[in-house]
Amino acid sequence: MDLSMSVNSVTISVEGMTCSSCVWTIEQQIGKLNGVHHIKVSLEEKNATIIYDPKLQTPKTLQEAIDDMGFDAILHNPKPLPVLTETVFLTVTASLVPPWDHIQSTLLKTKGVTDIKISPQQRTAVVTIIPSIVNANQIVELVPDLSLDTGTLEKKSGTCEDYSMAQPGEVMLKMKVEGMTCHSCTSTIEGKIGKLQGVQRIKVSLDSQEATVVYQPHLITAEEIKKQIEVVGFTAFIKKQPKYLKLGAIDIERLKNTPVKSSEGSQQRSPSYTSNSTVIFTIDGMHCKSCVSNIESALSTLQHISSVVVSLENKSAIVKYNASLVTPETLKKAIEAISQGQYRVSSASEIESTSKSPSSSSLQKSPLNVVSQPLTQETVINIDGMTCNSCVQSIEGVISKKAGVKSIQVSLANGKGTVEYDPLLTSPETLREAIENMGFDASLSDTNEPLVVIAQPSSEMPLLTSTNEFHTKMMTPIHDKEEPKTSSKCYIQVTGMTCASCVANIERNLRREEGIYSVLVALMAGKAEVRYNPALIQPPVIAELIRELGFGAIVIENADEGDGVLELVVRGMTCASCVHKIESTLTKHRGIFYCSVALATNKAHIKYDPEIIGPRDIIHTIESLGFEASLVKKDRSASHLDHKREIRQWRRAFLVSLFFCIPVMGLMIYMMVMDHHLASLHHSQNMSQEEMISIHSSMFLERQILPGLSIMNLLSFLLCVPVQFFGGWHFYIQAYKALKHKTANMDVLIVLATTIAFAYSLVILLVAMYERAKVNPVTFFDTPPMLFVFIALGRWLEHVAKGKTSEALAKLISLQATEATIVTLDSDNILLSEEQVDVELVQRGDIIKVVPGGKFPVDGRVIEGHSMVDESLITGEAMPVAKKSGSTVIAGSINQNGSLLIRATHVGADTTLSQIVKLVEEAQTSKAPIQQFADKLSGYFVPFIVIISIATLLVWIIIGFLNFELVETYFPGYNRSISRTETIIRFAFQASITVLCIACPCSLGLATPTAVMVGTGVGAQNGILIKGGEPLEMAHKVKVVVFDKTGTITHGTPVVNQVKVLVESNRMSRNKILAIVGTAESNSEHPLGAAITKYCKQELDTETLGTCIDFQVVPGCGINCKVTNIEGLLHKNNWKIEENNIKNASLVQIDESNEQSSTSSSMIIDAQFSNTLNAQQYKVLIGNREWMIRNGLAINSNVNDSMTEHERRGRTAVLVAVDDELCGLIAIADTVKPEAELAVHILKSMGLEVVLMTGDNSKTARSIASQVGITKVFAEVLPSHKVAKVKQLQEEGKRVAMVGDGINDSPALAMANVGIAIGTGTDVAIEAADVVLIRNDLLDVVASIDLSRKTVKRIRINFVFALIYNLIGIPIAAGVFMPIGLVLQPWMGSAAMAASSVSVVLSSLFLKLYRKPTYENYELHARNQLGQKSPSEISVHVGIEDTSRNSPKLGLLDRIVNYSRASINSLLSDKRSLNSVGTSEPDKHSLLVGDYREDDDSAL
What we know:
This protein is of the alpha+beta class. The protein contains 49 helices and 55 strands. A nine-stranded mixed β-sheet has the order 41-53-52-51-42-49-50-54-55, with helices on both faces. Strands 1, 2, 3, 4, 5, 6, 7 and 8 form an eight-stranded antiparallel β-sheet that branches. Helix 23 packs across helix 24, helix 31 runs parallel beside helix 46 and helix 34 (1070-1081) crosses helix 35 (1087-1100). The radius of gyration is 45 Å and the shape is globular.
């Protein structure tokens, strides 16, 4: 039996108790608390002494619990005292297997039992008890099936379970075994190695690819075991060197045979007893927990040592050993030999125990058999309630028999007891309780520090310098692995994980490390959450441990995100005291960091640790206070990403501008026509200037309402104001922001031009009215409305397109289950209750039931049940995955056929689905729109125009003063009543405004949007939906096209490729096999089964099949069943042939008798048929190799080779056995789309790099790539890694287009420069993509890039138009050509501006003529150059790492064959239709003969 300390005791003063009823109430209430083993309340002493489990309770929580009952509890000494526990070993006496669960529940309910560990294999139970409350005999009485095991002396070393496997004298070895693929591999290794002499036990794990072997080193070596594993065909290397003691052979002999330096005590005893001694060593030189485990494991492998407890804090080791066989000196040497020169060992004390004598009467009373020797302490206990000497004697009698008590003297007069005891074995608190349990009131004397008495200091052992220090050291509890009292939590970003086995690898390896309590790794988020003991290990060290496993790891600094945040609506609060009540109750709870309740809004904001407490517990707590609490309903849609606000704003701006623009444009056109008419009159009739002016002013619109204010100008002004200030409001804001950041964009130019035009027009209008001018001034009120209309339209359409992307997230979020069924199980996993809760209330560790057809609400691990799960959502691969106990499941995936119980591991925002949502969000928000060419241009254009405009103004002012006649001649509205200076300034100002107006970027602004509008329209007509200008502009810059495999390059559904018949056709025909297989698989829900049934129905040309009974399915292996009633199918088939023969016969010879004979023959057949109909029943097995072997069928090498060949090509090969005979092999694969090869070829001919990226295995990926001619493949890639891969390509400076169809592609589609989704794909992928191909045709990928190139070309032409017009128009407007008589009147400027806009729009409309090239065009274009790639030309990269697995180098013959293949391909290209999908690697010789036909439907 063994001692270890993991229970504490604390004494709390309690005020306010009045009678024994209060005592009883406190004892009842506190005794019920989880983790409280014992409580004793004293009314006289006014205190409560509680023995509790420090993992579940703390002195503080206990004090609060008493407080909450209405008493005042005061904690004088918050430091708890450790209580010694004792380990009792029980063995099964009954021959039958005992009800372990019943035993466990009975014992755990017993007061004083802190823990029970059961080992059904060894038929033992190890029970940890508190000896002061319960003893071993009472335990045995409780459970009659068990008896006390006196022979076992178990060590409790605090290391992992690794060592509990190995007995003393055995060594444990861990090996990494590579090349295992299934459970058959593990059983092969276990079977082979387990039979070797000297191997005690072996366990091989497929997940971790590890073997753990316990062996006897004197019979077999580690090297020998490694060799034997390699003989079986696996690669093995030793992970952890077996932990030998570094002692020579002589030392070991000495250890075994050393005679004992026997002390007097042992000489007196009879030699037949085994003597057990304890020695304490002081060890210097230990640095970390690894040293501790080294020493513990090294010593515990030695024989004759029953337990080792090493403490790093105390620098000590307590060793129990067989004193008759080993000496302390030998042990000391053994420790020093572990690591030469590192440890300095000195012995602190030696304790010798009495031997186990079966006749010893004291054994019956006390389960402990240790009497200590050297170290002794003394304590004084106050005892009340003794009346006579009989009381004194009974106390002395009972206490002296207690473990560790040397002597006791009780004084009736003083009411005191003085006890000498061994502090290693008992404590004053235990003794005090023992006295109380006898019915006396006992309390420890406060003043009395324990006296330390050293009895008989031995010659070998130096006295301890500070005995008190030693005492405190010895009393520190040795914390168990799960003790998280001092724990901290850190988050580590982990890169390079590819699948669930990486997660398992990290979690398993970290859990082994000392100081790490728990590890939780999220694959999608690439994050590990580690709870650790900061005294023993630090986050950088943990990150280093992960890096050693081959992953990238970085500590995340701001780790607060791991805390849960909860928003609750709390109803029923009336005043501030309610708020205080809720806040104080919640903050007292362990695991709640922060709580704030607002009375006004009825909301509570809570931060908590999701490992300790969850939202349901918090809500229950609030409800128990009498309030109602519910979650704040989260908006499950991604409203922050839809551009509704912007769409609304731009639509409003557009409509406002349009409403006012139409009349303005009407007025402008009318004036242009009239001016043109006047000009022609002027030329034809030689009218004078005065006559022109009078005719002009007589027109209706030119009539003056007030002097200087015409109807035309008034209407223009009234129509312009709303547009300028309401329609253009947004431009002003944007322009202001741009100028604030010292940049000039399109908005600045628009604002500048419109504002100056408006302000100038307004000023000259006011001046004209002030001067009462006869001639109406020329205003530019028509500029703002027209400009704003075009620009607002472009922006509105752009935002509408962007808004579509957010629907993707709404779709993704809708995949999340809204409710979960939480179940409560008892210790036997029997369902006690179940309740439906909101998915947000699911807590980590909850057990959730998922019924067939249900969605998994959170990520978790299966704890019970078998089922197939459709994870195509996440992985994109169509095949359902078998799930059994221990498998991980993903939120949002769909459970198919069995009911499962899962334990939640990631909830809320940590689930894989939430992570995908987050990825899509991030990709969409981080994707910067390409800076439009127009914006870039206007960055230079704006300052340039402004400078020219100012220059024009200055130049004309100078010219005016130097040569006034020039101005006089060309100033149309020159009125002699105006002063000269004013005339010059007005003229100069007008010229500069004309420059600004004519250079107004209207046509520049239109160049892009109009072409984009037409381009997207044309795309839509051709089945290519392009979301806005951004992808359209971007697609032409694409350098790399990345294809997803499943559903993009391939159809995404399995199809039967080949049926191979393995028996002679006279014994069983092909049709008969198909009929049997089709019938058997018709009951299967597996996609492979459905594919087989579909194929059989097509081949047999029937809709109904036979009858299938006793159908059984074994997930991951296959099916077995019985099939009947298939003769009808075969008869029907034969009958069709017969019928054809009859028809042919009747054509040759129309003869009645012939017809009669034929009908009679048919009747005979029918008669025979009806007799044999029920006769035949077939026993059918369909499945993989393992399934056949399991059912006792041998698979010969030909069939095996054939299967291997199919698997190498990425197909699934299924075997068929009928009546215990192998008779068929069916190859099933996802087939390549017919146009895939052509599309890839054309993309390459366009100069693009084509890459295949898939979550599937590398064999399948390589096979598909070789069929379509792709040379670069990334296989086994996760959704998040697809994103990383796209990013990686972008960082190389390449623009990437991603083509995909599944939810797993959506983050990558969003991240790519251009995401192209196949229309038959999932809604989410379609929403995340920039381009959607409505038809499921890969040639549309080519067409979309082609259309993009054409559109961009058109945009560039538009820019040329706009710029040429500006480059010619601006000098004319500035008056450069005035001397040669070329003057630009302002209305001409407007007309030219309109003309430039019209020319740009017309140019864009030319895109309407775009026609998509047809399949035939492409085929013709690519005809002679198509040819598959040989696998050697394909580089396959697995996961996210960029290490490619190149195919083996080809030999000379292979190369010759490759060259000949190319030439033969071109010869055969006429015969070979592009629709037929070839295989990946033709037979080397058939190529030289002719067409390659191996993949026919059946090959005999």
